[in-house]
């Protein structure tokens, strides 16, 4: 069902409707990173006839990360030594206009009195091949979860995640532009905000966007909260969006940390955390979800395709009743 506005439900309320996966997820194995952790990965993607993946790589006791590209060989993801590495966190990648758009989160560290994170922003790289990715755009400071997608009429949709809107932790925003060139730090701050997806004390963001066969957008993301004991809880979620009417389905949780084998956590408050990286849709109504877990490991999980129900909705119309195009 599509609606312009929903009543926000808490993580705990959404979890009551969640049906756990039939089988546990599978841990992914990486080589070529000198024993460092690999997590918050992208879904595998095809490039030059091979399966590639990008992942966040860092020491267990550090957040000073780099994004590394891997290729699959006999079930093991091996670092590509001939591809550039980027001092970023939480990579994402998509295709726009025949080019790769790769992004991640860039940290800013204070130097005095001690080195610590005091800001971050999303940065975007562009190139016809992965060897030649060049920095072209930056988002506003302290905004993560910027994601881009082509739309069926040739325009570009993008998702954002502004903080502190009307006392909320963070909300998902959406806008339409004519082309990638229109993106600017300012335009990320404009667009429609979905205030009805999270209660004020909780937050979430878009992680990967799928353009569905009926013109709908299938959004893979996360919904998050911090409990009274300071523990973080991150779950994988999806929703469907008509990009022109801005009607959307209700959020649904599609995976939780308990769907994967137990493993180490970077900090005690990250035990119940998964971060949606991407999803591969299969032809048989199934899908494979790729996640980072507890800021230390990466997993895949087979599940029913969460986007099928959105694809069965009536085809969308490339109209612009909200005046989003070129705004």
TrEMBL record:
<dbReference type="InterPro" id="IPR015045">
    <property type="entry name" value="MPT-1-like_LmxM"/>
</dbReference>
<dbReference type="Pfam" id="PF08950">
    <property type="entry name" value="DUF1861"/>
</dbReference>
<protein>
    <submittedName>
        <fullName>DUF1861 family protein</fullName>
    </submittedName>
</protein>
<dbReference type="InterPro" id="IPR023296">
    <property type="entry name" value="Glyco_hydro_beta-prop_sf"/>
</dbReference>
């Amino acid at each position: 069902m599509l609606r312009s506005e929903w009543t926000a439900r808490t993580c705990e309320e959404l979890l009551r409707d969640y049906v756990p996966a039939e089988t546990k997820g599978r841990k992914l194995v990486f080589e070529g990173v000198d024993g460092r952790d690999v997590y918050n990965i992208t879904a595998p993607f095809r490039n030059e006839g091979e399966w590639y993946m990008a992942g966040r790589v860092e020491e267990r006791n550090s957040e000073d990360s780099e994004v590394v590209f891997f290729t699959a060989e006999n079930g093991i993801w091996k670092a590509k030594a001939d591809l550039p590495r980027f001092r970023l966190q939480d990579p994402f990648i998509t295709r726009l206009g025949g080019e790769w758009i790769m992004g991640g989160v860039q940290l800013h560290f204070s130097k005095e009195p001690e080195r610590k994170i005091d800001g971050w922003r999303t940065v975007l790289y562009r190139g016809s091949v992965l060897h030649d990715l060049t920095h072209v755009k930056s988002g506003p400071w302290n905004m993560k979860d910027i994601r881009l997608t082509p739309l069926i009429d040739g325009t570009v949709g993008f998702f954002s995640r502004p903080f502190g809107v009307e006392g909320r932790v963070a909300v998902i925003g959406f806008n339409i532009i004519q082309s990638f060139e229109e993106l600017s730090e300012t335009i990320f701050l404009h667009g429609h905000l979905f205030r009805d997806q999270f209660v004020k004390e909780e937050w979430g963001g878009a992680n990967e966007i799928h353009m569905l066969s009926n013109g709908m957008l299938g959004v893979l993301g996360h919904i998050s909260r911090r409990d009274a004991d300071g523990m973080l809880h991150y779950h994988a979620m999806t929703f469907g969006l008509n990009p022109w009417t801005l009607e959307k389905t209700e959020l649904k949780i599609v995976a939780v940390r308990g769907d994967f084998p137990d493993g180490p956590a970077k900090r005690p408050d990250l035990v119940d955390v998964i971060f949606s990286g991407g999803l591969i849709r299969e032809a048989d109504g199934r899908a494979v979800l790729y996640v980072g877990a507890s800021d230390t490991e990466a997993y895949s999980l087979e599940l029913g395709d969460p986007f099928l129900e959105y694809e069965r909705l009536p085809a969308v119309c490339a109209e612009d009743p909200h005046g989003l195009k070129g705004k």
